[in-house]
Amino acid sequence: MSWGTELWDQFDNLEKHTQWGIEYVDKYTKFVKERSEIEISYAKQIRNLSKKYQPKKNSKEEEESKYTFCRAFLTSLNELNDYAGQHEVIAENLTSQIITDLTRYLQELKAERKSHFHDGRKAQQQLESSWKQLESCKKKFERDCKEADRAQQHFERMDADINVTKADVEKARQQAQVRHQMAADSKNDYHSYLQKYNQEQHEHYYTVIPNIFQKLQDMEEKRIERLGVCMKTFAEVDRQVLPIVGKCLDGMTSAAEGIEPKTDSNQVVESYKSGFEPPGDVEFEDYGQAMKRTVSENSLSNSRESKEKPAGKSKSKLWPFIKNKNKPPPAPPASSPPLPSAVPNDPQSPKQPKEPLSHRLNDFMASKPKMHCLRSLRRGGSVPEDFSHLPPEQRRKKLQGKIDELKKDIQKEMDQRDALTKMKDVYVKNPQMGDPASVDPRLAEIAMNIEKLQSEEQKFEVSSASDVSVGEAFRLGYPSPDGSYTEEQSAETQVKAVANRTSCAPESDDEFDELETIGTCKALYTFEGQNEGTISVTEGELLYVIEEDKGDGWTRVRRNEEEEGYVPTSYIEVLLETNAKGAMTYI
Predict the structure, then answer these.
(1) What gap in Å lies between CA 159 and CA 136, rounded to an integer?
(2) Transmembrane ranges (predicted)?
(3) What is the C-alpha R_g of the chain?
(4) Residue 71 to residues 270, 338, 340, 353, Cα–Cα distance (Å)
(5) Residues 375-407: pLDDT tens digits?
(6) CA pair distance 345, 316, nearest whole angstrom
(7) 3-state secondary structure of 33
(8) Euclidean distance between the first and final Cα of the chain, in Å?
(9) What is the tens place of the pLDDT at every residue in 238-253?
(10) Backbone phi, then psi, for 21, in 5-degree steps?
(11) Cis peptide bond upstream of 243, omega within 30
(12) How many CB atoms are located within 10 Å of the residue 283 CB?
């Protein structure tokens, strides 16, 4: 059906309909634009979500990467990030393939519609102008006819009147003839314009308007077809990214299927295995025998004979604790000084052959660097470079990892050295390409870097070898002081406690006894001893010294028979007796 033949009289309605069609195109364009904005916003939120849960760049990331479920989650996050990228692709394709195209087409459509309706209005105006001319000719013909009739009637009256002269009658006759001629001319003009108008009207309604309406119909059909293509493209844009989205989802599925609970549970063993053996059976302690006092051979004071104490008189003994040798106490009377970490009281260890183990541990302690306890690290201390705060098994793994890292750095420097050496040889053979001496500073710098890295590698290898020695010592059957390793104890604490129990303990079952005083001291400042192993003192208080400062900034003092502990050496004034017996000294 054609608009030109069927809708020849619906010019105004077609104008409204085509305007509504253009507005609908604009409406669909806005819809696609909002969809594109939603895709961009969604992709941004997905990327932010993926970024938010990405592991931080710290030591914990290295620990998390050991577990399959953590790696699976990281893979899922990466795949989710790629998934967000596909939504950005959707937004880009919607913009380039639909929004931009429809926006340009909408302008063309408006211009085309305007042109067609302009031609239609022009044709209507021409037809109306012809109609007006026809009406004018018709009215003139009608007027001339009436004038001719009046002139004819006047002539007839004059001719019938005997009183009118012949000249007047002739004049009336001539006037009537003129009027009849004018009416005839008007009739001819009217007839001519009528034929012309009918021809224009026929052409208008059967040729001009149908052609214009046909163009409008073609324009409307193209508009509808273009909308259909855009709607199809709208779906195809999503379909194009489905394969990649499917790969992202497959990656997430594969990552989830790659989770191995057994492997992760075994990794816990690898991560936290200390290398210590479980403690042996606790032997029976016979308190019926008299307690014997052990005198340390490491005291800086002159040893003197022990004084006998009545049997049965004993008090709670204070286990020695590891003090950070690398960090002296703050100068008084500043804020509270760092408190030494304490080793909890542990049960009596089974008696071991003293001589062989003492020699082993003495050799080990002479070569092994001192460790930092984890409690001191928690208080803000830096992590030791040789990982001495870790238990043997974990320290060995860390050291090996550091060695492997240094080897990679050394190999990288060597590769650079080889490349520069080849470049220098080329410069020597072809001086026009460059100055060979310009490479020497960089070669010297690389040589220094290699030497430094090799030195560090050797240092860590030595530490690793000594760490294997301590592992062997514990595998001989000597447990840690409290039978287990926790974060509140360092490996050094356990090793030194073993050494103390074997090399410093007497052969009797009484492992500890009362320590002799080796002098007196006066508190210069008030000290609040809040940690286990310390004792609180007030300014001006007099105390007994039972163990002097071993170079770590702490002195062991006693207030009475039941109270003793460590205080910062800088907080007291010490007066040692000349012939005092040495107190038991702990490593």
Answers:
(1) 34
(2) none
(3) 55
(4) 17, 40, 40, 49
(5) 444 444 556 777 776 777 777 777 888 888 889
(6) 10
(7) helix
(8) 108
(9) 999 999 999 999 999 9
(10) -65, -40
(11) no
(12) 12
Which has more pLDDT, 207 or 485?
Answer: 207
**CA 210, CA 258: separation in Å to the nearest integer?**
72
Amino acid at site 552: D
pLDDT at 563 over 90: no
Structure tokens at 507: 């052969």
Sole residue written with tokens 């062989």? 356
User: What was the pLDDT predicted at 332?
Assistant: 59
User: What is d(CA 148, CA 142) in angstroms, rounded to the nearest whole number?
Assistant: 10
Exposure pattern of 142-168 as b/e (b: 16+ CB <10 Å)?
eebbebbeebbeebeebbeeeeeeeee
pTM above 0.90, yes or no: no
Token duo for residue 108? 């063309």
Instruction: Please tell me the least confidently modeled range out of 255-259, 392-396, 397-401, 492-496.
Output: 492-496
* CB-CB contact of 539 with 522 (8 Å): no
Structure tokens at 587: 């490593």
SS (H, E, C) 76-132: HHHHHHHHHHHHHHHHHHHHHHHHHHHHHHHHHHHHHHHHHHHHHHHHHHHHHHHHH
Q: For the segment 116-146, what is each residue's pLDDT rounded down to a tens digit?
A: 999 989 988 988 998 998 899 989 989 989 9
Q: What is the mean pLDDT of the chain?
A: 76
Bridge partners of 558? Answer: 544, 564
How buried is residue 321: exposed, middle or buried, by Cβ count under 10 Å (0-12/13-18/19+)?
buried
* Cα 582 from Cα 517, distance rounded (Å): 8
Please name every residue paired with 554 in a beta bridge, in sequence order, or none if there are none: 568
Q: What span, in angstroms and rounded, lies between the C-alpha atoms of 380 and 387?
A: 16
Band (154; pLDDT cuts 50, 70, 90): confident
DSSP state of 418: H
Contacts of 377 (CB under 8 A, 6+ apart): 383, 389
Contacting residues for 421 by C-beta, under 8 A, at least 6 apart:
443
Tell me the C-alpha distance between 469 and 9, whole Å: 108
Tokens 């052959």 locate to 353
Residue 480, pLDDT > 50, answer no
Q: Report the alpha-carbon distance of residue 565 to residue 129 in Å, rounded.
A: 122
Q: Between the CA atoms of 277, 283, 285 and 291, what dihedral angle is there, to the nearest 10 degrees?
A: -60
Structure-block tokens of residue 184: 């005839």
Take residue 69 and report the two structure tokens written for it: 């479920």
d(CA 128, CA 201) in angstroms, rounded, equals 9
Nearest to 79, CA basis, from 262, 258, 260, 237: 258
| pLDDT value at 493 more than 60 | no
Strands (DSSP E) contained in 292-359 are: none
Q: DSSP of 160-193, one letter per residue? A: H-TTS-HHHHHHHHHHHHHHHHHHHHHHHHHHHH
Q: Are 53 and 77 in contact (CB under 8 A)?
A: yes
Higher pLDDT residue, 316 or 65? Answer: 65
Residue 555: strand, helix, or coil: strand
User: Residue 103: left (phi > 0), alpha (psi -120 to 50), or beta?
Assistant: alpha
Q: Tokens standing for 473?
A: 């010592």
**What H or E segment, with its residue span, contains residue 490?**
none
